[in-house]
Amino acid sequence: MDYEKIFSRIQNGNDVRGAAIATEKEEMTITPDLAAFVADAFADYVAGQTGCSRSDLKIGVGRDSRITGPQMSEGCIRGLWGTQVFMCGLTSTPAMFQSTVLPESAFDAAIMITASHLPFNRSGMKFFTREGSLTKAALTGILKNAAQKAAQAGSVNGYQAPEGAGSCCREFDLTGLYCKHMRDVIRRETGAGADEKPLSGLHIVVDAGNGAAGFFPGQILAPLGADVSGSVYLEPDGMFPNHVPNPENPDAMDAVRAAVLEAGADLGVIFDCDGDRGAVVLADGTEVNRNTLIAMLAAIVSEKYPGSVVVTDSVTSDELNLFLEKELGLKHLRFKRGYKNVIDKGIELNRQGQECELAIETSGHGAFRENYFSDDGAYLSVKIISRLAVMRREGRDISELIAGLAHPAQAEEIRFDITDDADDPRDFKEYGSWVLDELHAFAARQEGMQIVEPNYEGIRIAFDDEQVKGWLLLRKSLHDPVMPMNVESKEQGGVQIILSRMKPFFDKCSRLQA
User: Fold this and answer.
1) pTM of the complete model
2) pLDDT of 200-248, one tens digit each?
3) Are residues 138 and 29 part of one domain?
4) Domain range for residue 114?
5) What proportions of the chain, in percent to the nearest 5, are helix, strand and coil?
């Protein structure tokens, strides 16, 4: 049995993800026993990093609303033998990270059982220490150790802790602690005293998507005076019966928009399943996600940190770039897709002496330097809510923050599958690299196409002539035989013009199937 392959296939960057329930299309790839082996290896890693024995380690375990969450949590707890385990129950991913830095908990590490917005049958694990989430390299090492433990046991099933080993387990109200912390953030941001209710007079509805963040309106907003009536899908339900818990999903955004308009609310907030992503809707139904969310948060940042750098992923619009740099006076760095790539780049810039206060992916993963660069949907939401409260007192509307943001007239994403070809022995990664090399050469020969530099992912081409003004970005997927291409134009019909100019190139890429 190839134990290393079994564990390597559940690695997804710096997280673990897999199918915890088999379906017609998907075999089971992660079980409570696999989770136990991984948790065991994680405890070894934390002990090595801290120089502590397992018996001195304090490790928290939490989960989202997935139906397999309790069993996966139980597997983790078995694997954390010998440590002090704090069972945090249903909570959010950002709360699990905060458990390592809040003085009332000060855990050495934490594990969150979640698969973010993925379907009900999936599950996974996210890992935190006081330095933040694991690196991809660190998780690779942990999974190799887990594979060795399984090999020594002779099976990936029926995990057994060493004879006589046990854990000191206790329940811990992490959600309550986290909510108090968030209320304190709102008081800080609004300048409110300990006994004041700075959200009085505001009507805010929340859509938790039946995920883990259903506590947000009742335990964070209402105690500070907000009217949260009209909030929807707060009850945890791992089957996600109402909509996909994903702020990028059109149906999800339609649901919170409808809730805002029906309630006549001042603002709507929506979270993904484990609470590390968020988006908002304004009173008139304007959706604030993707580029617009980045713009609003950057506007808030610019008031306190003028001239600082905002790091985003590679698919942000030209209009956002102009807004950040010309309207707000910030610096904009487009980096790679993948929220961990974006956040790590922000951390790196600060270490190099460049002030970066916000690193955010268009997916809604937004991380502030002041919040340990933790991607936290609740934190970005309270930043917006707090600014709304302050501007309301000043007789202003929060939409003023993004009044200068323009939008592309047309935008489209095309995903090319890289198909197999018996006559072409290259794997999809090699073929994808060849496509990008060929595209670079093709664009360099064409009038009206300009290769954008610097660029950190794929090939970005600008179009600027009498017929069309816009851009395209072709890149490789992080893990799959897919090449996504984003195209935007400043006028209707521009995307079609760009695609027609690219047709001769794609005609010769026989293994790309749209």
Assistant:
1) 0.94
2) 999 999 999 999 999 999 999 999 999 999 999 999 999 999 999 999 9
3) yes
4) 3-172
5) 40, 20, 40
